[in-house]
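User: Show me an example of a complex going from sequences to structure tokens.

Assistant: Sure. Here are the input components:
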Amino acid sequence: MFKDFFLAELRHALKQPMLYIFLSLMALMVFGATASDNIVIGGAVGNVFKNAPHVITQFTVIMTIFGLLMATAYFNNAALKDHNNQFNEILFSTPLSKSGYFFGRFFAALLLATIPMLGVFLGVFLGSVLGPAFQWVDADRFGPFYLETFVNNYFLFILPNMFFAGAIVFALANKWKSTVISFVGALVIIIGYIVAGTLMSDIDNETLGALTDTFGIRAYDLSSKYYTPFEKNTLSPAFTGILLLNRLIWIGVGALILALSYFTFSFQEKNKKVKAEKDEKREKQTLRATPAVQAIYGAGSTWAQFKSFFYTNFLSISKSVTFKVLFLFSVIILLANLAGGFEYYGLQSYPLTYKMIDVITSASNIFVIIILVFFSGELVWRDRDSKINEVVDATPHASAISLSAKVLSLIMLTSLLNIFFIFCAVIYQLIMGYTRIELDVYLLDFFLTMFPLYITWSGVMIMVQVLVNNKYIGYFVSILVIFLWSLVMLALDLQTNMLAIGSGPSIMYSDMNGFGAGVEGRLWFNFYWFLFSLICIMLAAVLWSRGTASAFKERLVHANKKMSGVAKAFTLALVLAFASVAGFLYYNTQVLNPYKTSDQLEELGAEFEKKYKKYEGAAMPKVKDVKYNIEVFPEERSVYVKAEVWLKNETDVTIDSLHLNYDKNWHPKFEMPTASLLSDDEEMGWRMYKLSPAMKPGDSLLAHIETSYVPKGFENEVSNTSVIGNGTFLNNFQILPSLGYDPGSELSDKNTRKKYGLPPKDRMPELKANCGRACEINYLTNGRADFVMVETVISTSGDQIAISPGTLIKEWQENGRNYFHYKLDHPSQNFYSFISARFEVARKKWNGVDLEVYYDAKHATNVEMMLAAMERSLAYYTEHFGPYYHKQCRIIEFPRYASFAQAFPGTMPYSEAIGFVTNLEDEEGNNIIDAVIAHEMAHQWWAHQVVGANMQGGTMMSESFAEYSSLMTMKKMNDDPMKMREFQKYNHDRYLMGRSQEVEKEVPLYKVENQPHIHYGKGSLILYALQDYIGEAKVNLAMKNYLDEYKHVGPPYSSSLDFLRYLEPLVPDTLKYLINDWFKEITLYDNRVKEASYKKLDNGKYELTMKVESVKMRADTMGNETKFPMNDWVDIGVLDSDEKKLIYQKRVKIDQPEMSFTFSLDTIPAKAAIDPRRLLIDRVYDDNVKVVSAE
Amino acid sequence: MNKLIIQNLSKTYPNGVKALDNVSIEIENGMFGLLGPNGAGKSSLMRTLATLQEADSGTATLNEIDIFSQPHELRKVLGYLPQEFGVYPKITAEQLLDHIAILKGITKSSERKELVAYLLEKVNLYNDRKKSVKGFSGGMKQRVGIAQALIGSPRLIIVDEPTAGLDPGERNRFYNLLADVGKDVIVILSTHIVDDVRELCTKMAIMNGGKLVFHGAPQTAIDELDGKVYQKVVEREELEQYAANYSVISNKMVGGKPFIHVYSESDPQNGFESVKPNLEDVFFSKINTSNLLV
């Protein structure tokens, strides 16, 4: 019996086109991602093959989410097809076996549901064959296939996921006999997945997150989190560890649900609810007289019709179970998103309105799509489904009126959701004790961005349903329009918002700058899409199949007849208005403000390199001293710059030409009496001047440069977020052209370079001792300047403060504008910023240095703490590294268009997104805000006093040293090893994640190639461990000695070898291996406690015995690891039960793979650990700590 | 006096079915019955008159209104109850009628309220006006349908198979109502129940295969058949033979034996007895011209 049903079901389905359509869809998507670089699902970058096991696994797990919807169709169909065809009463009255029927259908559906997923494999396979064959992608981007990748993916992800989802859908379908409920069930599964994910976003509960994920995606992510490129290319998902556990859990749950469903399943129909017909009260003949009514047709009745249509539409949907369920889910998603808070390195941000808006947008997204797609179909088909269409169609109303009411219903439904989210967000803010509720920001943002989007899509969706004239195909087309259209735009490299339905320039609210410069353009775009939506409605109205459904061609023929004169005039006016707005948008976004798409930029970069790289070696003078005159006009978003630049020939050859690389948006004018223009390539921003007389070695010349930035009209996307209404933030590289060819701006990705026929490029020159010419250049200024003096007169509007580097010499007002005159006190790197905004200023004095924080009035909370952090850093650094050379120290807030902090000489711009908005009220733990300030302060020594040569390892002496300095101020302040471990956890993660995503090659610390995960993440870990092993004083001394030799000198600049030269003598012989292991090699450890037990001794003490395993590994540049014999010092110790306290610690020599240690303690030991403070880099740290058992 | 003039109306569906075949007819105030077997084209004609379907050729005008070029104008004076009348979920009888009243241009809310109450009373649903229509029985729903067709001051009322699903009492009440309004306007009633037409209509038409096979007063038709219809109880085995030799109008079973009516200009003898023709005989004689057993 089982076999009969199973095979019959299969045979039937194999004859249906649906299966093959699904299969091809899957294959097509994956094929696209494999055989082109434009479509990205998951991802293969750098050295990871496009068909690597890891990539295939990512495709599979991501696609099972889509596959789920297809599976729902099969399971729902298997459960309901007899019911829907009303065959059940016949079938179930035959003597068939329940188990055969039930499981036959279920397993047939399961097998069928997995078939479309095989499209993933098919797609990868075809992509790997055809991609290289047609030269879409290079052949060397593909590696070998492994059979086990496919087998394991099928049995680990495809089959279990379809089984679990299928069990739920099958059970629901059998119970409720409703297709809608089955799909809602599928939706619940997806939402459950998202909720679990948002709740588990912190690394503290990633294990829980991995186990609660019904698809196993996060379990796989966790197990492959630190995979190196080598491992990504070779390892298939395996039946081990957390992944296996996850799979077993959810298969178990699925089996349970299936069993439950089986036992409650019965062939008998439940008693249908039969409503007893009520006794009709026999009323007497009517008492009412025939009322005199008058039908009036005109504007009034049209409006009344519209209202009535809207009311009945809106009411029926907002009351429907489906809408209520969706509403409920969306609220759950929102709450789940909010529950995680806004975490950053373990700290919470205040729930600022703009953050809430971001959450609302991301949480409402999927529901808005569902509402638009699903209810557009419902609304268009509502009359026909209710069989009242003939009555309604035969009433004297215009089709456009009824369709507009449908569109408005959709708009209101989605708006209702959004407004309710705003309400929830406000409640959340209040609950969190945050009282700066900005209802105006919520609403303005809604009306600027989401509301117009809803208007556009509602019109489009209704039109799609009307045109397609089949509800289910309509759904399909709608989804296609939403998702495929953006893919098509991507594939065609179209970035204009005029084609991206409902879009416009992005709006990002900033507390400092409000909605920003995009508003004007956004309003025009909104108007454009509003007209578009109206046109959609008119088009739908004309082609609306009123009365008996008819073929599309017939509708087209009758279309003209159906339109009244007014309607025709209105439509014509609409089309004209739309065309004019489109023209205006086109003029502004393409003619006035042309932009380059990312592909075009890439191409331009390649051309630029081909054309001008030959000038890389051309001798150029250096920038010496610069005088600026800068006028900022915030309200017009304009900046005018006049600069006097002293150029000096410091080479030993004669320079007869000057090369300027410039940004044409800044319109540079270059004036030098001896220079005459040779050529100007405006497209690429390359200008060449002839010098006569030529500059002889040692000659100096004064150049006058004028630039200005003046915006015109509005843009497709705001391209310049540096010059804005409040919070203008510029640096010298932006406002002045640069001298000569800069290899640093070349395309770097090796695959991209290959595409354009460019040779592979080293990320950085190789580290060399006695480097000669290579050391002439430091990594900040590309050899075009060394230490320079800067003087600035900068003016801005009367309500703003402008800041430039150096001491404020003079401040005055003129014509209602504020003027400031700044001058540097000490030569510094040619790398500084100019800022203007409405600032509050907090000041403090420390040993003759002015400490200042320039902040927005809304962000006063943390300012005192920032001043304190500056003071602490100055104290530590001046004591251990040497004097501070500026007379002031400024933290300056800038808008959140970027979220970083940056150190310029004496000034540290700091994004409003970090630090200023972080809640530090009851912060007793580590404090990333302090850490960031300490880091930027440290740059005043590490980068601004000594800067590495532009070669491998150069950023170690700035970024790693700044991280180390920051850690030392933190350590001095809290003096708690476990808190430091907590903080370093993030650095471990940063390093290990970073190397997993490395695109070129991993290098040891002393050869770091400006890779953040190495110079920040690994640098922190290594230097912190180093000071623990050899002592803080010794590390500081090595750094100070190194600084003293190279402070403010250059060229030539120093390299990491120069630092190691100072470090090595200070490291005791027993630890000399550390320099090699930690700086010069890529070393990882795999430590674990195998066993730990204690027994009580007679003297009242407790004796702990622990058995540890220890392995040292060395990795090559691809992440391929080899084991090395261990002969190292490692800590072992005892922690309290919640790992907050270090009870006991001892550094021991580990020279065997397995060793046992015994020591006695005063108290009962809770947990034993190897490397209890996590000093060493260990991919799996959890097994380093073990609960101690009693013997 | 309203006048509906239909001329040479033809309609062929994409699948080749000829739904209307050169139909011409004039209809004036009063009840007009449209008889015909299933698939005769009744509903096609009615939907065409209700502006829900375009004809391939021909014209139809109501007074000054050209139905095809001025559908919007016709809808203003149209009351229509389709064969299948469904309702929105979660909406009460009162709300539904109110909605349709608005669509029919009753913009003033006080008037509308009065009208809806009046109609609900007329169809005996006033006490159920706050209940969801979805939960109504078939008969109650049909009454809602009738009420909505009467909204406004229609000059043309089209009701397609209105009595299906009504019990005899409801049917009577419905006909009284129709007769009431039908005095001053055109009411076209389509049905396949011959009795309905006999009881109600002063004029009628019979359709078959898209063609109009008869139109006129019912009594005229009956008179035409007077003395030409004969009946006989026959054995079942003989049925084929009778069909071959006589023009059999109809046959039904009485007491387990076929009871046939035949059409004959003169007395066919052979045990046949003359019978007074009724409208049913008219109906069958008009549609059963090929003498098949039906």
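The lines above are the inputs; the final block is the predicted structure for all two components together. Residues 353-385 of chain A form the longest helix (33 residues).
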